[in-house]
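Record pair follows.
FIRST:
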Amino acid sequence: MTCASRSLSSIAAAFVLAAAVCHAPVVLAQEVPPTAPTAAPPPAPRPVLPASVSDFLTGHWVGSGQFTRTGAPVASTFRFSKILGAEALAVEHAEIEPNSFAYAGVISMDTVSGDIVLLLASNKGGGGRLMRSRGWTGETMAFEAAPELHAWFARERVTFERLGPDSFKTTYEMSRDAGATWRVGDIQTFQRQLSPAGG
């Protein structure tokens, strides 16, 4: 083959290649839809006062027992009332004469720790207390004074024990060594005072 023939063949091949490229299908880049923003997870629900606490305690209670050190009798009353849409309980406690200790307070929630808290103020110079509980453990629920706010004379602990749907027992204890040891002050058993029919 002569040089002229080879040149013509090369030119022809180039034309064929150009034609193939011109007629090749054009693939367009597909448009990617924008990604929707990820929704933030809903906030975790805040702990609320358990109905097992508020429903059981609500009402008027009268109790009696004795001081463990002397054996002397003691009697007192509790009144628990739902407040703030049942998110808290108002508490009134008073000993019956000849004794005179009394306190008023509110039971609510620590929405950070999840503790049930009893914030109270008492007479006889006892001042305020912040008492914490983890709620019912079986049939008992203990409120223990927090280190940051307790009576000047001792740390205190009050344990409620359900004896039935309309009865509970309280055990009052004191600690003078920051909770290392506890001494029982009194034990009382309370009965719910049912309202008269139609009352």
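SECOND:
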Amino acid sequence: MTTPALQYCIGSSSLGGLQWVDCGDRADEFIAKAMAVHGATREGVMALIAKGPKSARYHTDWYAYLRDKARGEAADAIARDRAASARRQQQTTLCRKCGQHLPTSRFTTLPASAQTCDDCV
């Protein structure tokens, strides 16, 4: 059975996310550790890894997770895109007159109390 490219977590970063490192040649070692922790076969551990990034553990410590590299990086990209989209939405304000979402800098008053943009005034 071929093992997909795996990554293991070395703990949380100072920015609040998890730091993932490629297992490389040590993938079988981490799978063996996960088999011991979960009391499962190799196939059982691979099924846990397929469930998601925080399903399979290789140790009893808090951030001792295994994940599939391709699926994990794709999920990370989606999360980054969602966060960027949320930041962009927070940086715009709806003009009550023209109905457009404009950058907050286009309003001379505070964004929370702004009713119309500078173009509509």
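COMMENT: Residues 6-82 form one domain.
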